[in-house]
Amino acid sequence: MKVIKNILVEGKHQKPIVTDVFYVDDHQPKKIVIFCHGYKGFKDWGAWNLMAAQFAKASFFFIKFNFAYNGGTPENPIDFPDLEAFGNNNYTKELDDLESVLDWISSEEKYKKEVDINNISVIGHSRGGGIVLIKANEDARIKKVISLAAISDIGSRSSTTGDLENWKKDGVKYVVNGRTKQKMPHYIQFYENFKAHEERLNIQNAVEQINIPQLVIHGDKDSSIPVDEAHKIHSWNSKSILKIIENADHVFNVSHPWEKEYASKELKEVTEICIDFLGN
User: Fold this and answer.
1) Predicted TM-score (pTM) of this structure
2) C-beta of residue 184 within 8 angstroms of C-beta of residue 177
3) Residues 75, 77, 81, 86: is their CA dihedral positive or negative?
4) CB of 218 closer than 8 Å to CB of 149
């Protein structure tokens, strides 16, 4: 298996998109899977590398990347050394980043013999799940979409709402990262970007118009995003498939750092369900 880490893909917003690819180097065109991490996440979080390897072993060309403004850097793509970038992230930048990765793999000569550019699927976790659902409705290159523990409504997330009066007055609000203890900024542009693009960023509208195969996966013990949100997403597309993972939390019982050589039982189940869905 080939694993190439920290490729710099050119983005639309003056920052590179730090990207990994996992694949078996057999010069056979493979279905492409692009994975999007969630809020306060990154491509190397927890057991995502193990999940990526499992997809590669199943003959997929697996791509995962850091959103350009997620707070990581090319030199340190894990965690959040660049809080200024984090504060300047927003939803439309993340949609643009996913589009840039789609453009890159569709035209990159280096992997031409390894990929089937007519068979691209996207997977998103948490906020990344909302991003892939919106993009799946926008981009005809996407042939299947999977959301993992996804948000169903951007406008109701605490990162978008809160004490608007003080946020506007101060120009910034902070969230504490429970693991790193960093005070992570959200500049008011984050809210302004949402309001300016509220119609585009309506996940319900996007899902109602999706006409490609859609899989919704959620853990029944998710305390970050209630499983009810998965039922909502599923209800907006009668052709979608819903899978509830028993005893699984928001990150499918994985944590960071993840030192084990194997994923949790729940994440392994999720990966197998995804591979089966995308392989058919």
Assistant:
1) 0.98
2) yes
3) positive
4) yes
